[in-house]
Amino acid sequence: MGWSDHTNLGAQTVRGMTLVEVLLALAILAGAGFTLLIKIPLDFQGQALNLSATMLLEDIRDTRQAALSENTWYQVKFALAQRSYRIYREGVKVKEVGLSDGVRFYNTPQDFILDASGNPLPGTPIALVNQAGRTRQVIVAPVGGRIREE
Fold first, then answer.
1. 123: burial class by Cβ within 10 Å (0-12, 13-18, 19+)?
2. Residues 127/106, Cβ–Cβ less than 8 Å
3. DSSP of 88-135, one letter per residue?
């Protein structure tokens, strides 16, 4: 594509693009825009649920590691009405995290304790649900303290 030279009244030259070149440029831009539109994820509720579950998983893993390294106990309390959870070290709050918009706890215990050996008392699944009804679980195994997400 380039500029086309058009002669007007002999001595004066007008530069511009032809209609075909303009239409071709618009078609290319429309194709690129359509490709980008297809690649944009539209499941924002699912992304919020996955983000909240991953953050909870990482926080519990970090808390377990801290209990092991510091040889002390930690407690994770779930504020169901406020859609948040709090982490306590020997009864003193060290962190509070809110869930993403549209995500809430579902069939979740009020709290659990990670003892100095990193074992949860009791082991439990922590379920999160979004507005579409999809659920994710962070499972804290009672034996060995394995923490995983489903």
1. middle
2. yes
3. EETTEEEEEEEPPTTEEEES--SEEEE-TTS-EES-EEEEEEETTS-E
Give me the chain's average pLDDT, please: 86
Is the pLDDT score of 123 beyond 90? Answer: no
Could you report the per-residue pLDDT of 23-52, keeping only the tens digit for each?
999 999 998 888 887 777 677 888 899 999
Q: What is the pLDDT of residue 109?
A: 87
Question: Terminus-to-terminus CA distance in the chain, angstroms?
Answer: 53
Whole-angstrom Cα distance, residue 135 to residue 106? 8
User: What CATH number has the domain bearing residue 120?
Assistant: 3.55.40.10
CA distances, 16 to each of 4, 41, 51, 78, 139 (Å): 6, 39, 51, 66, 66
**79 & 144 share domain:** yes
Domain check: are 62 and 30 in the same one? no
Q: By the 8 A CB rule, do 56 and 126 touch?
A: yes
pLDDT of residue 29: 93
Q: Is 100 left (phi over 0), alpha (psi -120 to 50) or beta?
A: beta
